[in-house]
Write a structure and sequence with these properties.
There is one protein chain. By secondary structure, the protein is mostly helical. It folds into two domains: 1-50, Arc Repressor Mutant, subunit A; 55-175, Tetracycline Repressor, domain 2. The chain has ten helices and no strands. It has helices at 2-11, 18-25, 29-35, 39-49, 63-79, 81-92, 97-107, 110-124, 140-152, 158-173. Helix 1 packs across helix 2 and helix 1 packs across helix 4 (39-49). The chain is elongated. The termini are far apart.
Length: 185
């Protein structure tokens, strides 16, 4: 797994080969293929094992504080050496459909899963309506942070994180009854 991450750091996903990983890990390519069907699965497992997507949802009892803490955790991961790997993997998703599918299934859930836990707690406290948990609004904060990271790199300024939470996310998720009957076309 370490050899895989080292190869990703040095060459990127597009140039990573099972041969190079096997050589770096001092094993055979056949040994790798016994466990992984290809480089996409190997890379996903290496990233999962080394905490690319590990996040601990904060529980301060306050939605704003929890979301700010979570986005700061995500931002810190993006600033670490794993951030460069993650950025390369996200870019590679546009070129490799099988890899994109694996990313969506195995890695992408980290931020959205943590935010879902935070929002579920806010629902229990009566701050957020239950319908928000299954709406697109639920992942807006992590989506905007990822977009900022992809477009501008890391570190993501704390002012940007605060703006995402205060100006976009909270207004979208806090208890606001949606009355679609009064919307005029």
């Amino acid at each position: 797994m370490t050899a895989t991450l080292e190869e990703l750091t040095e060459t990127g996903y597009a140039s990573l080969t099972m041969d190079r990983v096997a050589a770096r890990a001092r094993t055979s390519k056949a040994a790798l293929y016994r466990r992984w069907s290809g480089r996409a699965e190997l890379v996903i497992d290496a990233c999962s094992m080394h905490g690319v997507s590990d996040l601990d949802p904060p529980d301060t009892g306050d939605l704003r504080a929890d979301v700010l803490t979570l986005l700061r955790q995500v931002s810190a991961k993006m600033t670490s050496p794993l951030g460069g790997i993650l950025r390369g993997l996200l870019a590679e998703m546009t070129r490799d459909e099988e890899f994109a599918r694996l990313i969506r299934e195995r890695l992408h859930s980290a931020g959205p899963t943590a935010i879902s836990v935070i929002l579920a707690r806010a629902v229990e406290r009566g701050q957020v309506e239950p319908r928000i948990l299954t709406s697109r609004r639920a992942t807006v904060a992590t989506d905007l942070l990822r977009n900022q990271f992809l477009l501008y790199g890391a570190p993501v300024d704390d002012e940007v994180i605060i703006d995402i939470v205060d100006e976009v996310f909270l207004p979208l998720v806090l208890n606001q009854r949606e009355d679609t009957s009064s919307v005029s076309g």
